[in-house]
Write the structure tokens for this entry.
Amino acid sequence: MAIHADLGRAEWASTPATVAHIAALAGMPLTVVRRAAGDLVDRWIQRFENAKRRYEALETYNLIGPWSSASLRFCQSEMKAAVIGPAVARMFPGERIISVLGLRRDESHNRSAIPVAKADHRHAKAGNRQGTIMSLWHPLADWTAGDVFRAHQLLGIPLHEAYTEWGSTRLSCRYCIFASLHDLQASTAAPPNGEIYRELVGIEARSTFPFQPTRWLADVAPHLLGRALHSDIVRAKADQAERRRIEAAMPAGLRYVAGWPPRLPTRPEAEDIAAARRPILARHRLEDRYSSVTTILDRFSELMAIGARKRAA
């Protein structure tokens, strides 16, 4: 069987039909699953709302942005693996389930050491009551991109329009945090992708965080932005620079580490923290609940006590 995790607005509009067509050509029944709590764009919006709440509550030292990252790949983990795995386990309890994935070692450094096959205990623990056994198989582990395109040609497997119509070098979401400038530009050239482009740029503007660490999505196709959104981005870039300057000047000895906070700040450090947080809280219309040395020290004491209880549990 074939199974596809639909990422909603983040997907090219033609992706669902392309997936269904290829499954039909292969003579395989297709199941489509989705994250119940919303699509990938919803996840980015949710992440920033959570980040603002945590920053307001002084649960984080720096404000955290909305986007996925190399270490937090929501699309692959929460939106795909964490949806497909449980769905398949529910569909075939007590069976041996082999998930066939097209991962290749030459795709990235992180994938360079993937095994051809391995056990997968994420959604069917070893020795579970139902006797379900799950494993992963990567039959294309040693293939190159050229091998893949040749197979498409030889076997008559249709390519997605991202390749055939818009010149992308790789199919992913419409806008991927790992995409090259070329592929981002290819996506913006497709008219159906314009609306989601502006929605993502709007998130950049509201959050003051660029879509990629070194690139604002707004700069990829500024001609697609209206005057108001362009003005919002200009302000967001200035606010980002100010936020980074402020956060860089905060006491270095209190930066995030596992088990944060590591210690109580001194009174001068508490003054610096309160002063640094004030403009960032105001920019995002958040309540300044820890605005004095006393409230900062009390909050750090509270957080350290919470952490101690968790470690002792």
Notes: The first helix runs from residue 15 to 26. The radius of gyration is 23 Å. The CA atoms of residues 48 and 66 lie 4 Å apart.
